[in-house]
Please model this.
Amino acid sequence: MTDERAEQANAGRGTMELRHLRYFVAVAEELHFTRAAERLGIKQPPLSCQIRQLERELGTSLFRRLTRGVELTETGALLLDEARGILDQVERIKAAVQSRARGETGCVRLGFADATCVQPLVPGLIRAYHQRYPSVLIMPEQSETLLLVAGLRSGMIDVAFVRPPLSDGEGVEVAPLVEEPMVIVLPEWHPRAGDRSLPLAALAEETLILFPRTIGPGLHDAIIASCQRAGFSAKLGQEAPQISTTAHMVAAGFGVSIVPQSIAQIRLAGVAYIGIEGEAPRAPISLAYRRDDRCTIVRNFVASARRHARAAHESGQPSRIYGDAARAPTLVD
Model:
C-alpha cells in the first residue's frame, strides 16, 4: 500500500497519533499545505485529510484558510507548543533507547581480584573503555577470585579481573590478558636487601609471608611450587590479609614475601623489591564474564579490553612501564 493510500485508509480513525502531530507541526511551521506535504514526502490531499481529522477529534479549528496559505488559530497556537514538546520528548526517548541498545549508556559492575588493579594494564583498559563510552557508569567491587566468579554466575557482577586458574569456571568465559613475573620482598635491613636479584633458594631459611590461599589459589600454589622446584619447602608464617598488604607485613618484620612485580609500584618505606633469578613464578590476570551474556555493555567492555591489551603488546608498553624488557610482563593476545 502506498503512503497516500495508507493515509486515506487511516483518515476515518478517531485516535490522535504522533503522525497527526508531526503533520500538524509541519503545516503550522510552513503555513502552507503544499509546502508542508513536500516537506513530509506525501501528497497534499491526504495531509489535508489528516488535519481535518485532527480538528474533528479536538473539536476546534486549528487553521484559518487564507487565499495563499493558512494561519494558526488561537487553539492552533496552543497545540503547536504542546505538539513540539511531545515530539521532542519522543525523539529524546528514541535516542536514549538507541544509545542503550548500542551500549553507550547504563552501568557495568566491574570486579577486581586482589591487587589486579595495581597492574598497569588494568587501569589502562578501564581508561580506554571510559574514553570510548564516557556515559557508562563503572561500579567497582574488589573481592576474591572465587567470590567474583560466584558473583558473575549470580548476575551480581558483569565482568571481573581475576587470577586464574579457576577451580570451577562453568558458564564463565575467561580471556587471558597479562602475565607478570613475581619479585621477592625483603625488609630493608635484610643483608641481601641491596641485591638486584636473588635465586629463590636464598629464601630457604626465611619465614615466608603469603596471602590466604582462598584469595588466589592458583597464585598461592604457583609460589609454593616454585619454592619446591628451587629445592626447599616454604616455611609459612602469619598470613597477610591480602596480596597488596604482604609488603606491609614484611616492613613490620614478620618475614619475607613473593608478590607480583606490579606491587613494587607501591613505594613502601622499609622494604626492598628484588628480582628473582632463573625460573620465577608468574602472576596471570584474566578477564572473566558470563559465557551466555548478551548485554551490549559487557560485550563492548570485553572487546575494548582485548583491543587495548593487543595495542599495548604491539606498542611495547610493558617495557616502558617496567623499564626492564627482560622482566616485563607478557601480554596474552
Q: What stands out?
A: The chain has eleven helices and 13 strands.
